[in-house]
Structure formats: C-alpha cells, structure tokens
Amino acid sequence: MNFNIMNKKTLILSIIVIALFATVASWVYFVFSKKPVSQPVDNQKQVTQKELPPNGCLEENEIAGYNIKEKTGENGGILAIDVKNKLDKKSIQSFEIKNVRINYRPIETHKCGVYIVRQFNYNPNTPKQSIGYKEELWRYVYNGVGENILLLAEKQNEFISYFASDFRVSPSEKYIILEKGYLGKDDYALVIKDLKTMEDVFVLSAKSTFAQYPNMAGSFGFDKWTDDSRYFWGDIFDGAYVNGYFRIDTQNWKADIFESPDGAMGGSPLNINTGYLPIQPGQVWTGDYEITQELKEQHKREGKKSFLYLYNLFTKEKKLIETTNEPIFWFKPEWLSDTELQYELPSGEKKIYKINE
C-alpha cells in the first residue's frame, strides 16, 4: 500500500515538473520570437537605444557626407552615407539607407548620428497613400545600424500627422525641435524633445504666442541651433515676409520674441550669434516675374531706389550700408563671418561690409 502511495506521489510530482517546464519554454519562445513594432525593411539593421554599439561615432579625423542615389522608387528614395578621412578624403566606410522621404532637407549628419525621415508602404504613383503608410524619424550610427525613434505620421482610416517632417537636432545631439500641427489648429506649436527619452522638454504654443503678439501671427520657420546648443533660432513668417523672430533658451526654457523691422524677408540671413539682420525696407515680392517687371518700371518712373540696411534685433539699431538706383533689387546678402556681410550690386560686383564694434 505504501508502494502505491509513493507511485502516486511520483506521478503527481512528474506532472508538476512537466507543466512548469512547458510554461517556461512557452514564455522563452514568446519573448525571443516577438517582432519589433517597427520592422526593418530591405535588410536595414535596427537596434534599441541600449544596444547601440560604442564605436558608432565619428573619430576626430573623420567627416561624413551623403548623396542621393535615387529620389523616388518603389520604396522611396535611397541615400548613400560616406565616412571619409578629413585629410586625404579617402572613404573609410559607407552604407545605404532606403525608404527615405526625399524633400528639401532630408537628412542631418552629426558626430554620433545620422538623422533621417523614412517612409514605409509608400506608393510613388499617387499622392494619397493607402492604409499602413508611415513616416518615421530614424537615427543611424556610422556603422550602418539604425533605429526608429519617432512616429511622425501614419495612414489608418485617415491620414494622421503627429509632427511635420522638418526637424533640427542640436549640435550636442541632446535635443530635437519639431513642428506640431499647422497654422489655424489649436494645438499648433513647436516642440523640443530630449533625444534620449523623446519626452517633451519645451513647447512654444502658437495660440498663446500670437495672443500676446497679434501682429506676428504666421507660421513657424526653423533657422538653426547655436554652436553651443544653448539657443535655437527661428522666425514667424507669412509668405515671403517675416513677421517676427524667436529664440529659445535651453538653460531657462524661455522664448524671446522679436518683432521684425520693415524689410525683413524670407531670404534675409539672420546672424544668430550677434542678432544682426540685413533688411531692405520697401522690398516687394510678387512671386510673378511679369508683375515684378511692371512694378520695377513703375518704380523707376517714380524715382524709387533699393536700400540695404543692417538691423540689430537686440538693440533695434539700423544702419544704411548700400543704395542703388535699381528698384526692387535683391542684394543677396550672405554672412561670411560674424563681422563680415557680403552682398551683390546690380552690376554683379560683390562687396563686403565689416562690422566694427
């Protein structure tokens, strides 16, 4: 009788052990066979933040560049990233990125990362994409390993845009600024995220900004970060005209708003280190060549001229640096340094104005 009891206990114990083994085996299979949320396409390598290799940054003697191999294909564009030696310009390594959303500014290269917008389930033959279409912001290190860090837009039952495809990464690669929504929407804003956590660290709301500065209402435009990554500069524009400028300070997370002077145009290059801005008061933009020529002839008969001034956003001081009898003329100003502004005359001659302070 004791023998039968022992057999029953052994049988029960065996069943328990087998059940536990089956449970553990099922759990292991589930964890290690689970697919990532954003699947790599065309053998693009993908890892998580913690798995990024330690040697993915550029060395001091290396530079990175890119070229567009294909603008539009079955899966979007193709970019080739090339890492070269600074001195002899010889290629050290290269890799391709597919499914790229090619626009006026498809990529940013930094010391430790390549930032790029990719699109999936894309049909180049139609402007209206099918369900399953996605736009994602990806980060690559320089051995070709990439990861999806943010969903920008997707097509479910309808197209949903969470952020525009334009972005700016700080030189320190600590922050990224994005545009959320568009002018007219209640949630239209600029958003700065921490690149490690992708959490919002600052939001500049259009609604609250334009309530305080009603004459500046317009769309947000990106300029760039300062070299030390402390400030981000941008403008508020309406067509070709700039209504204002903003500067976001990452030390105190405050935004300084500057009202534009007359003559601030979309092509006016702001010096973000000094606050100097070349302006042309009275400048007209029509967007139509024939209308512009008619206006020029009219202004010539009226004796109107073109003027180039240098304006400081901080002090609001304005200084005349050039005049021409040619009306509605664009001087094509360009900063050569923080103290040297190059511009062009109607004759094609280029001149340099030096700031003496």
Please give a handful of descriptors for the protein shown.
357 residues, mainly beta, 3 domains, 22 strands, 39% strand, globular, disordered N terminus
Overall description:
This protein has 357 residues and is mainly β. The chain folds into 3 domains: 40-165, no CATH class; 166-260, no CATH class; 268-357, no CATH class. The chain has helices at residues 2-33, 206-212, 289-301, and strands spanning 62-70, 77-85, 91-100, 107-109, 114-120, 134-140, 146-155, 159-161, 167-169, 175-180, 189-194, 200-205, 219-225, 231-238, 241-249, 254-259, 276-279, 306-312, 318-324, 334-337, 340-344, 350-354. The strands form 6 sheets. The chain has a 5-stranded antiparallel β-sheet, with no helix packed on it. It has a 4-stranded antiparallel β-sheet with strand order 9-10-11-12. A hairpin with a 5-residue loop joins β9 and β10. The longest helix has 32 residues, at 2-33. The radius of gyration is 28 Å and the shape is globular. The model is unreliable at 1-9 and 24-53 (pLDDT under 50).
Oligomer: single chain
Radius of gyration: 28 Å
How many domains?
3
Largest sheet: 5 strands, antiparallel
Overview in brief:
With 357 residues, the chain is mainly β.
Write the layout of secondary structure elements.
Blueprint: H1 2-33, E1 62-70, E2 77-85, E3 91-100, E4 107-109, E5 114-120, E6 134-140, E7 146-155, E8 159-161, E9 167-169, E10 175-180, E11 189-194, E12 200-205, H2 206-212, E13 219-225, E14 231-238, E15 241-249, E16 254-259, E17 276-279, H3 289-301, E18 306-312, E19 318-324, E20 334-337, E21 340-344, E22 350-354
Antiparallel strand pairs: 1-2, 2-3, 4-5, 5-6, 6-7, 7-8, 9-10, 10-11, 11-12, 13-14, 14-15, 15-16, 17-18, 18-19, 20-21, 21-22
